[in-house]
Amino acid sequence: MSPLFAFCQTSSPITPRMRVIIDNDFGGDPDGLFQLTHLLLSPSVEIRAIIGTHLNAHDGFDPSKTQADNAAKKARELLSIMKIDGKIPVIAGSNSGMQNDSTPVKSDAVDFIIKEALRTDTKLPLYVLCGAGLTEIASAALTKPEIAGKLTLIWIGGPEYNDLALPPPNASPIEYNLNIDIYAARAVFNRSQINLWQLPRNVYRQAILPYSELVLKIKPNGEIGKYLYNTLENLMARMQKYKLNLGETYILGDSPLVLLTALQSSFEPDPSSSDYVNKPCPTISSSGIYQLNPGGRKIRVYQHIDTGLMFSDFFAKLELFKN
């Protein structure tokens, strides 16, 4: 239950209208911690579990063999700072990716996704929110294909579609989150029938936070504000040691996961202030490249996100939680 719930109970009749499972690489890019904080402060979502997932085996954020365990530990650290540790299950996923696109990994996280998707005692729709790789959800769908019609997967990941956007200068053809586990991405795109909402690289890069707002609107808001501020401040200092100048903005690319769930419209619920197109789901090659698949199931591919709504809500909730 959200820490903001008590406030909302006294000021407005906001209750959960969807279930979410949060799946992210919290030991990597700190944008996942911002997204997690925002969702924890959102009373319209019922957070069923938080899953810590692995990075690419060669990722500089965490080159260890226990990446998913470390991600879960980081999530618990944040819950402790918010004084809600023990209130929501935190589960470590697999510490490595899939060995091929047809053999699922086994983990407590996979089991939880399956169990939650197959529940019959609730009518709240289920969203699985993936801000990194797709190992756990792909494995769950391979293990129990029938869950595909019982959830919506929202994924931050994948490169640009050639007919919709251009890649940024010097961009890798294999997008960062897809490259965490190419086999898992192939399993979701090529083998499953999962209802998929995708935010490719050109879209999640729109979630840009200026350093000035980090200082003025996040840092002053209690212990959680200081914690989030320090995660980015420390990263920026670390990058400078490697002669990488991040400038005065940072992309909080996982935050749209909140925008498309907690901040859906009141009537005819949907992320009504963000734009998408329905496209036939492409297949993904063994090298991680889209291949046209005109007969593929239709997926939502977002083109524009309402960052004004997303960030203003986050800042307001941080201030309310501080009080």
From TrEMBL:
Q: Name one GO molecular function term.
A: purine nucleosidase activity
Looking at the record, the residues that make up the Inosine/uridine-preferring nucleoside hydrolase domain are 20-261
Against InterPro entries, the record matches this protein to: Inosine/uridine_hydrolase_dom, IUNH, Ribo_hydro-like
List the GO cellular component terms: cytosol
Question: Biological process GO terms, please?
Answer: purine nucleoside catabolic process
Keywords associated with the record: Glycosidase, Hydrolase
Protein name stated in the entry? Inosine-uridine preferring nucleoside hydrolase
Recorded source organism is Mucilaginibacter mallensis
